[in-house]
Each structure stands twice: as C-alpha cells, then as structure tokens.
Amino acid sequence: MAHRFLASTPLLSRTSLSLTARARAAVPAQYANYVTASAVVMAGGKAKKAAPKVKAQSNSFRKKKAADDDKGESGSGGATRLNEKYYKPSVPVKVEEFLPSTATKEHVGQVLGFPSTVIPALAQTAYPTLLSEQFELIKPAALVVRESTVSFLEKVDKAMKTPSSQSRIVLTGEAGSGKSALLLQTVSHCLSAGWIVIYVPKASTWMNSSFAYNKVANTTSFVQPLLASNLVGQIQNVNKSVLDKITTSETAMVGRHEVEKGTKLSALLEVGVKDQFAAQDVMEVFMKEIGAQNGIPTLIAVDEVNSFFRPSQYLSQDGKELDPEHLKLPKLFLNYISGKSTFKHGAIVAATSDTLLANKSEVLDVTLGVKEVSPYKRLSQTILPWTQGLTSVEVPNYTREEAKGVFDYYKKANIFFDAASEPLFLNKFITSNGNPRKFFTSCAKGI
Amino acid sequence: MLHLLGVNLPDQKLVQYALPLFYGIGQKTALKVLATLSIHKTCKIADLSEPQVNQLSTLLSDMKIESDLRKQIRANIMHHRSIGSYVGRRHAMGLPVRGQNTKNNAKTARRLNGRWLKAEKREYSSSTRSIIPSAESPFESFFNRKWF
C-alpha cells in the first residue's frame, strides 16, 4: 500500500535529480530572483574554473589558501550561516506568543514564538547548539506546545510558593527528544511570569577547561574569575527589571569591595561585572539574598547538567582531574541542585544532554534510573552524594497531533523540497519515530 | 612571540602544544607543567600573564631541558666509548646497540646512531685534538674504520 504513495509523490524522483537541482526546481516563481551569497560565489567560481588551473606543488603544510576554489560553492562560512546546498531558505512565519495564558491544553500542537519581552533576555545567553540551527533556519524562534510542556509547566507553577529543595527536577529522555526545548519553554514561561531566572545553556563549557582558573589559597578549591564575571553580567541583563526591587539585607565584603546594606542587587552584580576577581563572591552573596527573600521566586535552569556530575577537564596541582565540588562556581550550583542550599520560593530544573560523549555521567544516569549498571561496578563516591533527591521527568517523542502541528509550521515556512502533503507527513513521522530532532532533519534536509 | 630559555614560543599556539617545543618536554610533561601552574588547557601563549610567565620560566629552569639534557645524553654515550664497551663501539659504528638484527632492517640505527659522538668530535675538531687524549686505543681506531 505504501509503495503506491511513493510512486505518486515526487519522492521517487529524488535519485534522478541532484540536491541542488531539486532545490532550484522547488523554489517558487516569485523567489526566482532570490540572490543568495552562495549564488554569487558560484558565479565567481565558474569564471575562475574557465581558466586552466596551473598549481605548483607546494610541500608546505602551513600554507592555507584564504579562499578554496574547489569548495567555493559551499556557502557555510561561520557557525551561524546555514549551508544553502542543504537547507532551503525559509519564509518568516507569523506565530502567536508563548505566554502563561497560551500554554494550555487547547493549544497543544500549536507552534508559538517567544514573547517580545523574553527574546532580548534569551539573546544574552546562547540557545542550545542544535536548537539554534533550527532557529537559524526558521525565523522567528518558536517551539511547539506539547502535552509534556503543559503538564510540566503546571508542576513549575505549583513550585512557585514552595522552597526550591522540594522541586529539583531533571529532564531525561533519548537524544533529540526535546529536553532542551522544554527547558527553554520553562525559562520563557518563568520570565513572562516575573521570576528571577538564572539560565545556563551549556554547563559543559564550565567544565571543559576553556576558562582560566586559579587556586584559592589554603584550600583545595579553584575559582574561575572570568566565567563568574560573564555569568554575573548575563544574570544582570536577563533580570534587569526584577533585580531593582530587591536590596541586600546586610553589609558584605566581595573581593576588595565593600557592599553596604540596602544596595540594589543590580548594583551588586555591577561590581562583579567590573571586577572579575570579585565575581565569585558577588555570585554567592547574590544567591543568598534572592534565596532569603520570598517575594519573587527564582528558577535555576541548567542544560547539559550531566557535566556537573563527572570529573571536570581541569587539573589539580597533582595532575589529577578536578571534581566539580572543587570548582567554586559549579559547586555553588550543585549546592542548590542537590538541595544543600535552598531558595525560599523557587525551583531547580535541569536537562541532560547526549551531545558529547565526554559529558556523560554514569552516576547521574544510574541514580535517576535511566541506566542500569552491574551492582559490582563502583560508582564515584565523591559524586554520588550530590545526586540524591533528584526527580526525573522523562520527555517523550512527539505524539501524532504535536508532529502534525510542527509539520504545518514547517509547511508555512516553506522548507520542504518536496510537496508537503499527508503521505509525506506520515513518511517523515514514521521514519523518525516521532523523535523531534530526527523529524526536523528529515523535513529540512530530506534525509 | 614569547622568547623563553632560548626557545621562541609563537603567541597563537596553545600553551599545552607550545611547551613540547622545548627539547626534553613532551606531551605528558607539558600537561604536568600546566597542572602545577593552574593554566587551563585552552590557554594560548598570548593569554599568559606576566606573573604566570615568570612562574613558568622558574619551573622550566629547574627542569633538565635543552642544552643541559643534551650534555647529559652525550656524556652517557661518551662514557660507554671511553670504557671501551660493546655499547660504545656500536654507537661509534652507527649500528644497533640493543642486540637487534642487522641482516636486514637496521635503517634507523644507521641513520641516527653515532650522531652524539660525531657532535663530540666536531666540537673538539680544531686545535684541541692533540691536547685531549683520544678515547680509542691505537688498534681500536684501525678496527673501527668502516671502509678501507
């Protein structure tokens, strides 16, 4: 039965035409004059190819050509530019805003964009890597409202009046199932609702030895001054309006500066931005202050949290890998994630990531029940205590309704090379098993 | 370009991969140096602060690298030569030292062994030859000639 559908759709013609030819054929007439950067490069490249190439044999490995003639057509220059050979340039789609009022059961299956008040805040911190590819292709950035979104946001709303130690949730699920997306939706929801939000999109960059670190005298701990300063700046920019309402409850010493009682928290954070060596102290005072007040709830949202539960790539002075508890900034967050410190009102939501093998944490997987390991295998006894008391929420693949909503959105954005129809939707949905990431790559790249 | 202890370290190179440019420092020792000085793995030479450069130079001058190491290696091999051992003779002849087969496959030894002794001879090649007694006995220098 299925093969009759395949015969009738243009899917069979895939092998006869090249990808670029199909892309050119599929562009509608009104976009015929659409000039892409790669088209210009291709025109230049063809002119160069007409002249016979006489290349001297160069033995130097160090010589790098600034513009590679052979690969002139592949337009992808930097990380943000999408390769126009593989992606069809999309049309901007008009979407409603994702607000607390629209995140309800009636809107399940609808694709809603981030509110205009939230977008500048989200621009402070980068989007998670693979999601940012999708947002690059189809503008404006938007995510589908799922059943799991609705139920999860209800949970988060209940946590608004309870201490954060009672709501420490980790989102788990298979690769590409929508954990980071759900976390983004939670962040957006809490920002719209007026919470203080501390969003860390890539916790792995804290642990992979990419920031400078210094030993604190007479202790086994290390400080990452530049990282702390960056984080303080991000928090300040994301929560500008909210932080003016809270003031410090006592005088504090941060680095070489003294912060008097009654200073606004935004002024406190400014100290950390200007002096990176005071930033760690600023973070600690800041977290204590927002935890002590019960007017405004706080959300800590950490993506790639599995990198907090395994040895980092930093080295101690003995040459051994440092545990996260020896790095002051990750330890500060681990205190809240494990419940050792708590906010009076708030929640901690984290998402695991399967992106890099170097970030995998067996201890976390075993404690959350995601993975089973032999009882004879010895798990790290230094990291195990930090994983106690975490609740795991599994993020499933798309249901048919949600996938249909996403498919309609992609159809409006005009990213399909083949004609978008019900059989095509069935094809994509079944072959990707409803996995959101695989569904997107299958729709956008046709693979 | 940071000039440290006789070696030029390019600014855009990661410290982890610039340190092995010193003779006597390899990948493992470079990581140990980074760990001791608390330098992160993605730090470039240009990112090092003045106190860090001073600490690095102090640490490196305490290690046996560059000319000190070369002298030690040369001294070890010269010792074998001066006591007239088998090892010394093989170094002088440019053949494998550790009992390898020479029927076939002694290419690396033929290419590399004996360069420490040649350097020694080159150093003492001018007027000082007659003053410093030769380590070889008269018959040894006849038997050790490679071709006649």
Overview of this protein structure:
The complex is a heterodimer of chains A (447) and B (148). By secondary structure, chain A is α/β, with parallel strands linked by helices. Chain A is built from 17 helices and eleven strands. The two termini of chain A are 22 Å apart. Chain A has two domains: 105-394, no CATH class; 400-445, no CATH class. The model of chain A is unreliable at 1-14, 29-36, 47-56 and 66-78 (pLDDT under 50). Chain A has helices spanning 2-8, 19-26, 37-50, 119-122, 129-137, 147-158, 179-192, 204-207, 225-238, 240-243, 265-274, 279-292, 328-338, 362-368, 400-413, 422-432, 436-445, and strands spanning 111-113, 142-144, 168-172, 196-200, 214-215, 222-223, 252-254, 257-259, 298-303, 346-351, 391-394. The longest helix of chain A has 14 residues, at 37-50. Helices cover 37% and strands 9% of the residues of chain A. Chain B is mostly helical. Chain B folds into two domains: 2-63, Helicase, Ruva Protein, domain 3, CATH 1.10.8; 67-112, Ribosomal protein S13/S18, C-terminal domain (30s ribosomal protein s13, domain 2). Chain B has helices at 15-18, 27-37, 50-62, 66-82, 86-93, 107-112, 115-123, 138-143; strands at 2-4, 7-9. In chain B, strands 1-2 form a two-stranded antiparallel sheet. In chain B, a hairpin with a 2-residue loop joins strand 1 (2-4) and strand 2 (7-9). In chain B, helix 4 packs across helix 5. Chain A binds chain B through residues 209-215, 222, 313-319, and chain B through 31-32, 34-36, 38-43, 47.
